[in-house]
Amino acid sequence: MRLRLGVLMISLCLALPACGGEGGGSPAEQLALDVRGELLGAAAGFAQVSVTADYGRRVYEYGVDMTWQAEGETVLTLTAPENVAGVSARILEGETALEFDGTRVETGALDDSGLSPLSGLPLLLEYARTGWMAECGMEELAGEQVLRVDLRDPERSPGEGRECVLWFGTQTHALLRGELSQDGFTVLRCEFSRFETE
User: Fold this and answer.
1) How far apart are CA 62 and CA 53, in angstroms?
2) Tally of structural domains, the chain
3) DSSP conformational letter for 161
């Protein structure tokens, strides 16, 4: 518990200059830090997600239920397309495919680093918990005011390398939407119909 609290405090301190800058402290910045603190403190979570993977010349859509534990495994269960609904998998580090009952379903890499549609979900959570906050602000999404957080490598300019944009509910702090892009091109879009932590 003491180690987790130490990691939480270090992560929050590292996020301050990135999102707030000098004299920061806007309501959006404070909300972003509050959401991050809650995610870092969460022991587990569950999400229902619609995933759109854009390979450039082809686009695929998946439905996924995801359960995760902060100090355990992430389990993904496909809910769509219908021909693979019910298939469950565990993300293995460095893998870009699902494995189940001795069968392998190739989803293919979205970029040169091996990012796949399913490895992207845990990556969104990692960005939310520890990514460098480049910008924070409030905007309208689906008719409601939400928090938008842009995350990227602090050594790169906007539009270079991998970037992440996350949208959170201002009251619930639930993750509503996430996007991963590579060199300015959005390769993965996730719409969360349910997001819970404990």
Assistant:
1) 8
2) 2
3) S
In a domain, 96, yes or no: yes
* Segment 19-49, tens digit of pLDDT: 644 345 799 999 999 999 999 999 999 999 9
Which residue range is the domain that position 188 belongs to? 2-42+120-192
Closest alpha carbon to 80 in 102, 105, 49, 59: 49
Class of residue 22 by CB neighbours under 10 A (exposed 0-12, middle 13-18, buried 19+): exposed
Residue 197 in any domain: the answer is: no
Look at 66-75, 112-121, 188-197 and tell me which has the smallest mean pLDDT.
112-121
Q: Which residues contact 51 (CB under 8 A, 6 or more apart)?
A: 61, 62, 63, 64, 117, 118, 120, 121, 188, 189, 190
Number of other residues whose CB lies within 10 A of the CB of residue 33 = 21
Query: Does one domain contain both 137 and 152?
Result: yes
